Amino acid sequence: RQAFLRAIVVHSRDVKDRHRHHVNIMARLAKACKTHLESFQKEKENAAQGTGEYREIVEEDFLKEVTGTEWVVVHFYHTEFFACKVVDKHMRLIAPKHRGCKFLYLNAEKCAFFVTKLMIQILPTIIVFQNGVVVDQLAGLDELGGKDDFRTEVLEHWLSKQGCLKLKKATLAALARHCDDSSCCDSDASD
């Protein structure tokens, strides 16, 4: 009879241990589901705000677009300027990688009011906005090496220095290895 009772006690402990193990697994699964759901909701919010894509806007939409999201990068361009086409190519590569920022382009010929208000005198001009306020302005290609054959990472680094996107230390290190102009490779990594 005592052997039987000991067997019941041992079996009971095993059941309790398995129960605890299953509860732990369920807790980890619940946490993973919550994290995944939060990530999905953030992606959905970003998509609704137009972040992570590069799209053209018109002057009438400028204020709504620039003030509706925390970080916005606007490329003011001219259709016939080769340098503007180069910047456009790089922006198209950068935008999908950085979903926390909205990337827009605006034809400078069709938005005289904002070109004047923002004192744009050189094209291409890239302006970084945070909550509708100008953070910095890149006029021409001088800060990107002064040539139209700069690497996408150089523009990406300039944008990261303005705070609108984050680069990893490894990305900055790779950029520094390939950059000829030390002024464009100052390192301020986020992580």
Structural Rg: 26 Å
Helicity range of the residues? 40-55%
Distance between the termini: 65 Å
Structural class: alpha/beta
Chain-wise SSE layout:
Blueprint: H1 2-49, E1 54-56, H2 62-67, E2 71-77, H3 82-94, E3 102-107, H4 112-117, E4 125-130, E5 133-139, H5 152-162, H6 169-178
Summary, kept brief:
The chain is an alpha/beta fold and 191 residues long. Helices cover 49% and strands 15% of the residues.
What does this structure look like?
With 191 residues, this protein is of the alpha/beta class. It is 49% helix and 15% strand. A 5-stranded mixed β-sheet has the order 1-3-2-4-5. Helix 3 links the parallel strand 2 (71-77) and strand 3 (102-107). The N and C termini lie far apart (65 Å). Residues 180-191 have low confidence and may be disordered.
What tags apply to this protein structure?
191 residues; alpha/beta; five-stranded mixed sheet; 6 helices; 5 strands; elongated; disordered C terminus
